[in-house]
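User: Is it possible to get a 3D structure for a protein together with its bound compound? The compound here is glycine. I've pasted both below.
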Amino acid sequence: MKKSTIAWMTLLIGLVWISACDKDAATITTDNLSLAGKRLTAMTRELHGSRDNPRSLKMDELVLVKSRDWTSGFFPGCLWLMYEATGASVWKEQAAKFTLNLEAEQHNGSTHDMGFKMLYSFGNGYRLTGDSSYKAVLLQSAKTLITRFNPKVGCIRSWDHHQEVWQYPVIIDNLMNLELLFWATRHSGDPVYHDIARTHALQTMKHHFRKDYSTWHVVNYDSTTGAVINKQTHQGLADESCWARGQAWALYGYTMCYRETGDTLFLRQAEKIAGFILNHPNLPDDLVPYWDFDIADKSTEPRDVSAAAIIGSALFELCQFPVDNSSLYRMKANQILENLSHHYLAKEANYFILSHSVGSKPSDSEVDVPIIYADYYFLEMNLRKMRLDKADVNLTAPAEDK
Ligand code: GLY
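Assistant: Yes, that's possible. Here is the predicted structure of the complex:
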């Protein structure tokens, strides 16, 4: 064969390959939303009339939880995100129905999980509909949450259980609940919520991080003096290991704190946390972490898809802020999205979008199963990518209006 023919053939193959990749990138979010639509429809049908919301799957049966469970807001959250993505009223009706299952939680002061529960259900509902009854519930929820703040410690107390083990436990996950407090100040004008959230975030920066920006899961404080008593784990491999979802919460949490405050201290923190995750020698090539960054045997330990979805969604937000590694973060987020979409989907007969998450390995609970919060952050990731890609199109589009 002539050299010129070979060169033309190579070029042609290259063009076909590039156009297939482009098509893949363009259709990945629409395919994911279409799959999500099918799975969530199956779930809502199965749950018809239920006062409990779904959390995970056990032996192919849905595991339902009462509103007090920290995961109860994610299912209505998924339904709200589907409404946002499609504008179809059926999603709004279903989302509103499952959101109301959580109404009593606004007065539940026995938990720090208020943000997880109320922001994704009532918060998304208010953002997308402007319904003032949702706003009232959210403000009451924030009021209830700050009753758990101890000014001496400078943090919101996470758990009330195991008082024989921890005097005043604060877990890294708790950062995620601060978003509700930032929201409450913006919508009430009362600075108290914002101040508490900022104080908690600063105190967590001080005590939850090692020099390499990995996290301790639980910091146990002395409630009278505010001194740190000890640092441990509850869902990780060891006190000195780095639990993958905890690290994911930290990345998402500080990215959100920067969004809400504009304080670059939080942005720098998020960049350092991203650096720890993305450069870790135990992070697999497909960027879906093992359930703990310090596992010893990669051949037997499960991945945690929920951590990957949280990291991916956080990176899609972080890449839009003034950071040195913006394009790297965006590229990594795209890779996570592609890998989850191609290799970690739940089985056809499933109600969930993704599988292979880990709730708590040390308790042998929800290991390598679908879990609703993985689906929530996966959907959020898809929406964030769609907005980001569209913003690019707008930036390069001719300025028709001028
Ligand atoms: N407490 C939230 C989690 O398990 O990640």
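DSSP finds twelve helices and nine strands in the chain. The chain has one domain: 23-390.
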